[in-house]
Write a structure and sequence with these properties.
The chain is α/β, with parallel strands linked by helices. The chain folds into two domains: about 325 residues, no CATH class; about 190 residues, SGNH hydrolase (Rossmann fold, 3-Layer(aba) Sandwich). Helix content is about 35%, strand content about 20%. It has 21 helices and 25 strands. The strands form six sheets. Strands 1, 3, 4, 5, 7, 10, 11, 12 and 14 form a nine-stranded mixed sheet that branches. The chain has a five-stranded parallel sheet with strand order 22-21-23-24-25. Strand 4, helix 2 and strand 5 form a beta-alpha-beta unit. Bound molecules: zinc ion.
Length: about 675
């Protein structure tokens, strides 16, 4: 161990504690919030194995960067505080979180749902025997290594309780606000061949979420910054398996950099659903890992410079937590485990462990215990906590189905059961489905129902006002009432999307075809996804025509988001209406939003490319731009109403002519 570094970091801790112990400012906060901030160093003081990579066989004896656990206790009015602990470690076990919750209950009467512990998933922190239990087969781990791991886990568990309690004892009036930034170093790591897993890779076209949610705590008058909590959906694995020193990886570097740039501030990092994303580049190179931390610190610096980026948080905190079981697929037979036990490596250790259980008269689990937890801060923000290594599909789906502008998803929270694959990832197979389950001592991969189960539990904890599309409820109900009065044809052609569809006199333009107009003004693709089962499915159409995307871009969504939302819509059509054809009408240029033309073209381009790659005659892309622009390449005011946004009759005449050959 580097003793010098060890002493220096304790000085930093002491300075931070002194800052936070200053008495509360005289002015009471209007926000009604009180926040306590605490930190404790958790760098081991003895040699210990590091976890995350299975190949490291010797104990780490050097500290390249100290490790920390930090806590925010947030109380509104006289209610019990909610306490968030972040920790530089691979993961925490359910038992560790329960121990923290028990301390908080005993010492500050904090309810269980108000306690969350989020791991950074650094792969350069001490191994905990209760997390990824079979990553090093305990039977093959030298007794002294195991003793050190156990000692560290016991010490860490106590310190997590200490830091949580300390935060509750430092409550001071505070203001809270949040913002969303962007960081781009997370890259999808699942290489696929013909839709199936082919190995780890760097897959820039794969799904990721580059959003960087940031929460800041300021003092009562809103001037002094006290703490910054940032979340990013990416593995904390810039440093690889040949790096065998204590380090917080990019999450540690982000904290270090933020605290250096903002003296007196405590920086905390939680991880989103980044189980299938790796940092890029990835190398045992401290310059690169610092660079990733620096990207986050720089983005937060940029956000802090602009008042406009921040949404203030107000209102009481509502915490909810449920435990439930996630089903595994049918277990392998005893004979299959016997076959695997005769091989070598992790698969053999795993099979031997299962066989020992069976020999001892125990049955193997067919489900995995899980939990979903949410904190709502008034109507401003909802935070979700999901245990385990959750793939990005969960975060993206929650953001589609709930109000993405008020949502924050923490994974690697409260427990480390295993990877949590989605329906899509389960169908593709690979490491996050099977290969990782051996290390986590799970007897089988998940059944596909896990995705809907988790999403439904989270949605069930949040009020209806968090649903993405609640603002359209009245309009949808009107369409349904109209359909009940005059039932539209089934098996016809349903147009859906935004006001360009709603205002389109389809029955006049296509009087010879069974067209149905289910457009709803101002809507985005996510809304068409959300209402799919009410507006589209019941009509069993032979063709679905979607015009949507312009409002999405206008609301600040990126072309990539619009593209992803389109893919979600296309997936619904394929799943729910396998016989139907989907026609996507490209985002059309108009004078009002002419400044967004490049974004519109980018979104159209991504969607067009995906449709081409689908190689199916059941989905097509219809370009509109070339039919609507003047020869000079500019939009034609003569085709638009006074608002210069919507088409007039002349505009729709062109649309009718262009679209007709595509209707079946
Ligand atoms: Zn991982």
């Amino acid at each position: 161990m580097h003793c010098r570094r060890f002493v220096a970091s304790w000085l930093v801790v002491l300075a931070a504690v002194l800052t936070h112990c200053r008495s509360a400012t005289a002015a009471d906060s209007d926000s009604g919030y009180q926040v306590g901030v605490a930190r404790v160093e958790i760098t081991p003081s003895f040699p210990v194995r590091l976890s995350g990579y299975g190949n490291r066989a010797t104990e780490a004896t050097e500290v390249e960067q100290p490790l920390f656990a930090k806590a925010l206790a947030i109380r509104h009015g006289d209610a019990a505080p909610t306490v968030l602990v972040t920790v530089d470690t691979l993961g925490v076990s359910a038992a560790m979180t329960e121990a923290v919750a028990a301390r908080l209950k005993q010492e500050h009467n904090v309810p269980r749902a108000n306690v969350a512990v989020c791991a950074s998933h650094t792969h350069s922190a001490p191994a905990l025997p209760s997390v990824a239990a079979l990553i090093f087969s305990p039977k093959l781990t030298p007794a002294d290594h195991l003793a050190h791991m156990r000692q560290y886990e016991a010490e860490l568990t106590k310190k997590l309780g200490d830091v949580a309690v300390a935060a509750c004892e430092k409550l001071q009036p505070a203001q809270l606000a949040y913002a969303y930034g962007t960081a781009k170093f997370a890259i999808n790591r699942r290489a696929l061949k013909e839709g199936k897993w082919s190995g780890f890779g760097v897959v820039p076209e794969g799904v990721v979420d580059h959003t960087l949610p940031v929460l800041v705590v300021r003092d009562a008058d809103g001037k002094k910054l006290r703490a910054v909590l940032v979340n990013y959906a990416c593995h904390c694995t810039t440093l690889g398996g040949s790096f065998n020193k204590i380090h917080g990886d990019w999450a540690g570097c982000a904290q270090e950099q933020l605290e250096r740039e903002h003296p007196g501030v405590t920086a905390l990092v939680s991880i989103g659903c980044g189980a299938d994303a790796n940092p890029e580049p990835r190398k045992d190179d401290l310059t690169i890992v610092r660079g990733h931390g620096d990207q986050i610190a720089r983005e937060i610096g940029r956000l802090l410079k602009s008042d406009k980026s921040w949404t203030p948080i107000a209102g009481p905190i509502t915490a909810a937590r449920e435990e439930f079981a996630l089903p595994l697929a049918e277990l392998p037979t005893k004979a299959e485990f016997e076959r695997r036990a005769a091989t070598k490596g992790p698969i053999a250790y795993h099979a031997q462990t299962q066989l020992e259980r069976l020999a001892a008269g125990k049955s193997l689990p067919t489900t995995v215990p899980y939990s979903a937890q949410t904190w709502q801060f008034g109507n401003a923000l909802a935070m979700v906590f999901l245990p385990g290594e959750v793939v990005v599909d969960y975060q993206l789906r929650l953001k589609r189905e709930l109000d993405a502008k008020r949502l924050w998803v923490n994974a690697y929270a409260n427990a480390s059961p295993c990877y949590i694959a989605s329906k899509r990832v389960l169908a593709e197979g690979g490491y996050e489905v099977d290969g990782s389950m051996y290390y986590y001592d799970q007897p089988q991969h998940f059944a596909p129902e896990v995705e809907d189960t988790i999403i439904e539990r989270v949605r069930g904890q949040l009020p209806k006002s968090y649903a993405a599309s609640v603002r359209w409820e009245a309009e949808i109900a009107k369409i349904e009432a109209r359909d009940r009065e005059t039932p539209p044809p089934t098996g016809g052609i349903v147009f859906t999307g935004s006001s360009t569809v709603r205002m389109w006199k389809l029955e006049e333009g296509f009087s010879d075809l069974p067209v149905v107009n289910h457009g709803f003004g101002g809507s985005q693709i996510v809304d068409a996804v959300y209402y799919f089962d009410r507006l589209i499915t019941p009509l069993r159409p032979r063709q679905v025509v979607l015009y949507s995307g312009s409002n999405d871009l206008n609301s600040g969504k990126t072309p990539e988001q619009v593209h992803r939302d389109f893919l979600a819509f296309a997936k619904l059509v394929r799943e729910k209406l396998p016989e139907a054809k989907l026609t996507y009408l490209a985002i059309a240029p108009n004078p009002k939003r002419w400044s967004q033309i490049e974004k519109q073209r980018a979104a159209n381009g991504l969607i067009k490319q995906s449709i081409a790659e689908m190689k199916s005659d059941k989905v097509e892309f219809v370009s509109l731009e070339e039919h609507l622009l003047l020869k000079t390449g500019e939009p034609q005011p003569a085709l638009h109403l006074k608002d210069m946004l919507h088409f007039n009759d002349a505009g729709y005449e062109i649309l009718n002519r262009v679209v007709r050959p595509h209707l079946e």
